């Protein structure tokens, strides 16, 4: 059973973001997906560039292969239909022209509306292209960013373990998690394969820098919270008990469950508020 839900007892206005106190290089995340966009994007761009440059050379062979090699039976049928035309069937064609002008006009009308029908069906396909999501990033990138265009994504399952280090002991007053932009290529429907969702159950530890997934089972957390969807959408500050985080050199965040029970968990930003203790020489 978790600890009671947090109450905003502290006046959060007296605490500011302690971004400068973060030891970003010393912070570690477990069970996170490594970013691959930086490796695949240049290859995709070069492939697209080479494809556009060779479009004039490759388009015509593709068309020829499509009409002449992929389906020989279709090509043979087309030839058998076209051969009787010059063999002297002008009379029957003339009779059909005189006797059935209406059918010809209707066929012409149907033929004339075909391109517009194709255009009408192609337009929704263009409009249905999904908006780009966030790029998969590392914990260090997430801690440095001020925007929500990057996403930290779990790898094997929905759980994440983040070990946040500070340059000096601080009084950690509160934190906030932002999860507004899902990563690219991941669905958000819970029943979909490889779906993602925002964090929900979060357990926080203080000065447990060697904590791993085996340790979170037995180690008692200093604070736990069940986030609501609006908490991760607005980045609401979650107040921490001052008696347990007043000399915090590192903080561990164990994200146990996500909002929708999806396969993976994502977040865009992790922000900390507090005050650094003065150093005495």
UniProtKB/TrEMBL annotation:
<dbReference type="InterPro" id="IPR010400">
    <property type="entry name" value="PITH_dom"/>
</dbReference>
<dbReference type="InterPro" id="IPR008979">
    <property type="entry name" value="Galactose-bd-like_sf"/>
</dbReference>
<comment type="similarity">
    <text>Belongs to the PITHD1 family.</text>
</comment>
<feature type="region of interest" description="Disordered">
    <location>
        <begin position="37"/>
        <end position="117"/>
    </location>
</feature>
<dbReference type="Pfam" id="PF06201">
    <property type="entry name" value="PITH"/>
</dbReference>
<dbReference type="InterPro" id="IPR045099">
    <property type="entry name" value="PITH1-like"/>
</dbReference>
<feature type="domain" description="PITH">
    <location>
        <begin position="103"/>
        <end position="281"/>
    </location>
</feature>
<feature type="compositionally biased region" description="Low complexity">
    <location>
        <begin position="37"/>
        <end position="59"/>
    </location>
</feature>
<feature type="compositionally biased region" description="Polar residues">
    <location>
        <begin position="67"/>
        <end position="77"/>
    </location>
</feature>
<protein>
    <recommendedName>
        <fullName>PITH domain-containing protein</fullName>
    </recommendedName>
</protein>
<dbReference type="InterPro" id="IPR037047">
    <property type="entry name" value="PITH_dom_sf"/>
</dbReference>
<feature type="compositionally biased region" description="Basic and acidic residues">
    <location>
        <begin position="101"/>
        <end position="111"/>
    </location>
</feature>
<dbReference type="GO" id="GO:0005737">
    <property type="term" value="C:cytoplasm"/>
</dbReference>
